[in-house]
Write the structure tokens for this entry.
Amino acid sequence: MKSLASIVLAAGKGTRMKSGLIKVLHPVAGLPMISWPVTAARDAGSDPIVLVIGHQANAVQGAFRGAADIRCAMQEEQLGTGHAVACALDALSGFRGTVLILCGDTPLLRPETLKNLLAFHLDNSAAVTVLTALMDDPYGYGRIVRDASGRVSRIVEQKDADPEEQEIREINSGIYCMDSDFLFSNINGIGNDNAQGEYYLTDLLALAVRKELTCLALQAVDADEIMGVNDRAQLARAGRILRRRINREHMLNGVTLIDPDHTYIDHGVTIGCDTTIHPGCRIEGGTVIGDGCLIDGNVSISGCRIGDDCHIKAASVLEESELGENVAIGPMAHLRPGTTLGSGVKIGNFVETKKIVMGAGSKASHLTYLGDAEIGRDVNIGCGTITCNYDGVNKHRTVIGDDVFIGSDVQLVAPVTVGRNSLVAAGTTVTTDVPPDSLAISRVPQVNKEGWRLKKKP
Ligand code: UD1
Ligand code: CA
């Protein structure tokens, strides 16, 4: 295969986002916007990929830290797309082959489309090929001007177009394929004599035509794909389209989504077959869900590994936790980071966990807080149990052995250990270790004062 490099333009701020964060770092379906076109370029076979950065350069660079194929080129002042590409060429010195040019704000672009563009460009030995689309409302885009025989002659920007040119519905996607020799030797030939006083990359096409080099346009099959995100309304629209693609893939892999339009699954989530997901769920952070699970409505899962046949009941929140098989959670439970649950564990309603390990078959069915604890197998945690793990300065651990029964409304003042097969009576405050096979009970003996209420009545 011929060598392929990409340039991704991302120096602009994205003023219309009205955001403190640069446009290309806004997340879309779980990835910073710019990661989508970068991934498409990579999947199409590009190496290296040069990012042209300017505004918030460190943040953009940081999003790709450790990626060996990424190089960054600084554009200190944003003098136009042509100037931006010129800034990238130092980072490509010595490179010969084909250069793809993309924008960082087109998250819907697919690698297949880039591959088609590349094949079309190479098959026709073109100097430059632009990806175009037919738009019902082309306003704002550069228009593709063709000559009488239908050949591309130039691109005219909205602000420079005369009324007749404004009628043209074929628009410039801002995505191009160029021969590196053509690009390197002509990029400095473009001027800035136009309505915006900018160096327009699009002027390279007219330049190629003037030099009688092959200059082509390929229409994208799906106009959505080249949509550039400029404001938050378009951001939402792009997110919706990406999620639809992601959800469709899960469904084709055997996952039932009761209402895919209201299921929010990010890029990078894995879900086993015969798992059913009800509406309103948000699943993100590289979560892995096994086969045959049932996830009720309005559940939020981030960075978790969930085994087969689990049931996550409505409105539960699961963060960075690990669940074995056949675990039941919720409704309205909160697993905070560092929760590890063995097979068959049950965590019921209004239970909160944090940094705990709970052995197979153990249960905490209602209204409980378990933090910084190591809990054995087949333990029953009664309603209202609290691990008092924090003394105001430090966190302390609670250890509960196998087969322990903790009655309702128990406080375990950590650090404390309850030995295996012991029973802690309801209402007990455990402040010292409980040996194995014992009963722990701490209650003030009950006093009944008969008639007391009658004497108090006026
Ligand atoms: C550009 C095209 C237009 C096309 C449209 C597609 C030009 C002159 N026009 O217009 O024909 O229809 O894209 O969306 O190329 N950028 C830089 N440095 C700069 C200027 C821009 O890095 O100096 C980056 C921006 O951050 C952005 C991309 O280039 O990612 C496109 O720039 P933008 O100003 O949005 O160009 P458009 O006016 O949309
Ligand atoms: Ca734009």
Remarks:
- The mean pLDDT is 97.
- The first strand starts at residue 4 and ends at 10.
